[in-house]
Specification:
Blueprint: H1 2-13, H2 15-50, E1 57-61, H3 62-71, H4 74-77, E2 94-95, E3 111-126, E4 147-154, E5 158-161, E6 167-170, E7 180-183, E8 192-196, H5 197-203, E9 221-226, E10 229-240, E11 249-252, H6 253-260, E12 265-266, E13 268-273, H7 280-287, H8 294-301, H9 306-316, E14 320-324, H10 326-368, H11 370-378, H12 383-421, H13 429-455, H14 459-463
Parallel strand pairs: 4-11, 8-10
Antiparallel strand pairs: 1-13, 1-14, 2-12, 3-4, 3-9, 3-13, 5-6, 7-10, 8-11, 9-10
Helix pairs in contact: 1-12, 2-10, 2-12, 2-13, 10-13, 12-13
Length: 466
């Protein structure tokens, strides 16, 4: 009880310095909790943010994958354009009906979207080219009567009912969020299409009713032909992708399959998945999963690495090879590592600053209380007892500052989450435990370096004013 009274009295006698110590620890705790809170949650946030810019896994027939590896053509068709600008049509296919099996793998909940694609070149004829008005008002002679164009048959916003009874909505509408679209997306299964602005311009497509008369507009009809078959598609949207896809046209997969006599056929599936950045284990597994030990295999298979998810997709889709889009995976890993490094550095610097501040404040406090401490030693208190008293006083005020700082840090983390990522940060309990342990070590080290001055106090000299 006497010991507690001594601690309580120290707060009233040196309130300003105690508050400064509490404020220092509070600020350090605020920075540490907010930064580490974001660090532990930033992986999912960054992956979700970066995944809005296209797929990070592509699924192809094995024969196409062999050709891609042999001639190093992965980069040309693995990007966001979906390979629609390829000069030749594919000769091997996957079953479109197998695409839904992607949502049955172990990491099904990490698969946020996917879309099968059938890429074909067909003859396109614009039955209503622009001949007058604003925009591309030129003569009909400037437009070819027909043109061989790349067409992608896909899902736009398709609702799937899974074997588990759950439903999910997938398609390119959610995977091309960065496209600038005038008009709207087609409805799945209908004879509607969206067309790239470059192809629209070359065919003279006009879209009626758009507010900007000088822009590409929609409303015409384009006929697609293959052999003796022809299907008229209503153009409901003109998009600007910023890449080769601007020379392509997107229609429902079943319509293009009917036109090209390729029922239930796709040559590619784009998959968007939330993944964990690769490490040495993931890279080892990507080269040869069979080379992993049993423990390594279980760790890799049960972690959402791009290579692990790709491997599991291959398990459920016959004749398929799934590959991660290396550029996207590398970007996710690099951005994540750099972001985490900056936040960890800020945490370390805040702890160092707290240690220096606490040490200086304690030295000043001991200097002001030298007469009191000398008196305690003169009446029999040992150096250890006096040191424990100072440590207990500092620990009590530091604990108060840490608790307040933890609350403020949680708020700052939420603010960062909403401003940067548009959603809150999930604060994990281990963040608070880790911060309190780090602060305890920091305060202990700062106190230990300051309390050494107590050992040099000589009661007789101090009490006589020497």
């Amino acid at each position: 009880m006497f010991f507690l009274r001594m601690i309580a009295r120290s707060f009233t006698r040196q309130l300003r310095r105690r508050l400064l110590i509490a404020l220092t620890v509070c600020l350090s705790a605020t920075v540490s909790v907010s930064m580490l809170g974001v660090v532990f949650d930033v992986g999912d946030k960054l992956n979700a943010e970066l995944s809005t810019y296209g797929s990070n896994i592509t699924v192809q027939p094995k024969s196409d994958a062999v050709v891609s590896d042999l001639y190093n053509t992965e980069g040309s068709d693995a990007g966001t354009s979906g390979g629609s600008a390829s000069a030749s049509d594919p000769t091997s296919f996957l079953k479109e009906s197998d695409a839904a099996k992607i949502k049955t793998i172990f990491w099904a909940f990490n698969i946020t979207n996917f879309a099968p694609e059938l890429n074909q070149h067909v003859t396109a004829i614009n039955t209503k080219p622009v001949t007058e008005g604003n925009g591309w008002a030129v003569s009909l002679a400037d437009y070819p009567t027909q043109k061989n164009v790349p067409v992608v048959g896909t899902w736009f916003n398709k609702k799937l009912k899974l074997a588990s009874g759950e439903t999910t909505v997938v398609g390119v509408e959610g995977m091309r969020s960065w496209w600038s679209l005038q008009g709207r997306w087609p409805k799945d299964g209908t004879k509607e299409a969206v067309i790239g602005k470059d192809l629209a311009k070359s065919l003279g497509v006009k879209v009626d009713g758009h507010e900007d008369e000088a822009a590409v507009q929609v409303g015409g009809t384009v006929s697609l032909m293959r052999g003796d078959k022809s299907i008229d598609f209503k153009i409901v949207g003109v998009y600007d992708s910023g890449d080769d896809d601007n020379s392509a046209m997107y229609v429902s997969s079943n319509q293009l399959q009917d036109l090209t006599d390729l029922p239930d056929s796709v040559n590619k599936i784009e998959v968007k998945a939330l993944t964990t950045p690769e490490n040495d284990l993931a890279r080892k597994a990507a080269k040869n999963p069979a080379a992993l030990s049993q423990d390594e295999w279980e760790t890799w298979y049960c972690t959402a690495y791009p290579s692990s998810i790709a491997y599991q997709i291959e398990e459920v889709i016959p004749g398929a090879v799934a590959k991660q889009v290396r550029q996207v995976a590398a970007l996710q890993g690099n951005v994540l590592q750099k972001t985490q490094a900056v936040m960890i550095l800020m945490t370390v610097l805040s702890l160092i600053a707290a240690a220096v501040a606490v040490a200086n404040l304690m030295v000043a406090s001991i200097g002001e209380r030298s007469s009191e401490l000398a008196l305690l030693k003169a009446i029999g208190a040992t150096d250890g007892a006096v040191s424990r008293l100072m440590m207990a006083e500092t620990a009590a005020i530091s604990l108060l500052g840490a608790i307040v700082g933890a609350g403020l840090g949680s708020g700052v983390a939420q603010l960062i989450g909403h401003v940067v990522f548009g959603s809150g940060i999930t604060m994990r309990p281990m963040v608070f435990v880790l911060v309190f342990v780090l602060l305890a070590v920091t305060v202990l080290l700062a106190s230990a370096s300051s309390i050494r001055s107590i050992l040099s106090l000589k009661p007789a000299e101090v009490l006589h004013g020497r």
